[in-house]
Amino acid sequence: MLDRPTANAPSLDAAPRLGPPKPDMLTLDQAKAMDVGTMADVFKEHINPGQFHFMKLLGFHKVKVERAEGMFYVDQNGRKILDFFGGFGSLAFGHNHPRILDARKTFQDEKRHEIAIAFLSQYAAALAKNVAACSPGELDMVFLGSSGSEAMEAAIKVAERASGRKNCKIVHAENSFHGKTKGVLSITDSPLYKGEFKLVDNTYRVPFGDLAALTAVVRSDPDVGVVVLETVQGGGGIVEATTEYWQGVRALCDQHKVIWVADEVQCGYGRTGRFYAFEHHGVVPDVTALAKSFGGGKAAMAAMIARRDVYMKAYGTPKTAMIHAHATFGGIGEGCATSIEALNTLYDEDLIGNAEVVGAYLKERLQAIQAKYPSIVKDVRGRGLMVGLEFHDFSQTLPFALRPVVALLDDKLKGSLSGFIGALLLKDYDCLVAFTEYNRNVIRLEPPLICSHENVDQFCDALDDLLGRGIVSIVKDFVKTQMG
Ligand SMILES: Cc1ncc(COP(=O)(O)O)c(C=O)c1O
C-alpha cells in the first residue's frame, strides 16, 4: 500500500528542494507567444548571429510562422506564403498532412514505445520491409537514422567495407553535397562548409557527369573502391547527368568492382517523378540513401539502403554485425510509424505521378517566362518537382551607378539576381523559394509533391510580374527593402 501523507506531514510545496533550482527558462507557451523581434534577438544571441545577417538581407527574419498547412505557411499577420522552397525537398506531403498527423496521434494515444534498442521494433521492421519494396533490384538491406548526413555516413561505411580495399579511396563530384558531419564533409565539395577542418583525405574529385574523367581516376588507382554521386545535384544548382553517363558509371563500377553509392537524399522519394531519380536511367546502384521527406515532413528520419550482397560483405557475420548497429534514435518508434504512413500516402495519393505531371507544367510555364525575358533568365532545368531557374550573371551588365550599391549590400549577393528575386517574391508576392550552395544565380524550386496546377500558376504569375519590372527596378526595389 502507498504511504499517504498524514495531516502533520509537510506539504509538497514546502518540501526542501533536493536538486538544483530551476534555471530561468521559457515555457512552451512563452515560446509560442514570442514576437518576431525577440525571436531575432534570441537567434542572434544563442544560435547563429552571422546567419541572421543573411536572413535579414532576404527579409526572411520578418516572418513568424503561426501555422502551416498543405502548400502554405501562415504568418503572424495572417499572410499565406506559398511554399516553393519545400524545406529543400523535405515536404513531399506539404505541411501537416492530416493522414500523417493522425498516424502520429494514434501512436501517442496508444502509448507506443519509442526506443527499440533492447527489443525488436515492429515499426522499424515494417518500415525496412516497405523501403525494400519501394527499391529496385537487390536494394534490400535498410539502416535507419535521423538525418541525410547520417544515412550518407552509413552509406560510405558499408561501401568502404564491401569494396574490400584496405586503403579504400572514395571518388566524389565537383559541386557535390552529401552532408556536414565530418565523414561526409570530406566528400562534400564546398570549401565554405569544409571550413579548414581536418578531414578524411582518401578522396578524389571529378567533374560531375564526365564519364571519361571518372574512368581515368578509377583506372589510375586500384585503391579506388567507392564512387559517391548525387543522382541530381541539388546544391550544385539542379544539375543532371545523361542516361549514357549513368549506364557508364554502372558498367565502370562493375568492371572494377567499385561500389557505387547514389545519394538520393534530395532527389529521391518521388521528387523527380520516379521513386528514385536513378530509375529514369535504367540502372541500380549498390547503395543509396533517403532522408528529407522520408519522415513525412514531421519526423527526422533517414535510411541507407544497400544491396544484400554488399551489406553481407560488410557486416554479414556475428563478429562484424555490431560495427553497423544504429544510433540511439535510429529507427525510433514514432518516427518509423510516421514514415510507414508517409510511404503508404505517397503511393495512395499518387504523388510521384503528380510530381511528374505538375513538374512538367511548371517547367513549361518557366520556359515560357524564359522566352519572354531572355536577357534575365538563362536556363530552366530539372525534372518533376526539382527545378532550377538560372539567371544571367548581371554583375557586368548592371548600370555603373548601381554596382557599388549592390556590392556594398553584400559580397555574397553581388552579381546574383537570385537573392534579389527571392527577397521580392516573398515581400511582394508571398512566395518562398530556395537558393543553392554552389551557384548563386540559381533559384531552387522544390515545392511539395501535392503541388497543383493552380499553385504553379500562382507562382509563375508572380515571377512573370516581378521580372516584368526589369533588372534595374528589381535591384532598386531590393535596395529599398534594406533601407526600410
Ligand atoms: C544530396 C544530399 N545529401 C545529404 C544531405 C544531408 O542531409 P541532412 O541535412 O539531413 O543531414 C543533403 C541535405 O541537404 C543533401 O541534399
The name CATH uses for the topology of the largest domain is: Aspartate Aminotransferase, domain 2
User: How far from one another are the termini?
Assistant: 68 Å
Question: Main sheet?
Answer: 7 strands, mixed
Q: What is the highest CATH level, the class of the largest domain? A: Alpha Beta
| Fraction in beta strands | 15-25%
Shape: globular
Rg over alpha carbons: 25 Å
Strand ordering within the main sheet: 4-12-11-10-7-5-6
CATH architectural designation of the largest domain: 3-Layer(aba) Sandwich
The total of helices stands at: 19
The CATH homologous superfamily of the largest domain corresponds to Type I PLP-dependent aspartate aminotransferase-like (Major domain)
Mean pLDDT: 93
Unique bound compounds: pyridoxal-5'-phosphate
Q: Compute the number of structural domains.
A: 2
Helix/sheet category: alpha/beta
Which stretches are poorly predicted, pLDDT < 50 over at least 5 residues? 1-7
Could you characterize what this model shows?
This is Aspartate aminotransferase family protein. One of its GO terms (biological process) is L-arginine biosynthetic process. Belongs to the class-III pyridoxal-phosphate-dependent aminotransferase family. Keywords: Amino-acid biosynthesis, Aminotransferase, Arginine biosynthesis, Pyridoxal phosphate, Transferase. This protein has 484 residues and is α/β, with parallel strands linked by helices. It has 2 domains: 60-89 and 351-483, Aspartate Aminotransferase, domain 1 (Alpha-Beta Complex), CATH 3.90.1150; 99-348, 3-Layer(aba) Sandwich (Aspartate Aminotransferase, domain 2). The protein is 42% helix and 16% strand. A 7-stranded mixed beta sheet has the order 4-12-11-10-7-5-6, with helices on both faces. The chain has a 4-stranded mixed beta sheet with strand order 1-2-3-15. A hairpin with a 5-residue loop joins strand 8 (232-233) and strand 9. The longest helix is centred in the C-terminal third of the chain and has 22 residues, at 351-372. The chain is globular and about 65 Å long. The structure holds pyridoxal-5'-phosphate (PLP). Pyridoxal-5'-phosphate (PLP) binds at residues 88, 147-149, 152, 177-179, 230, 234, 263, 265-266, 291.
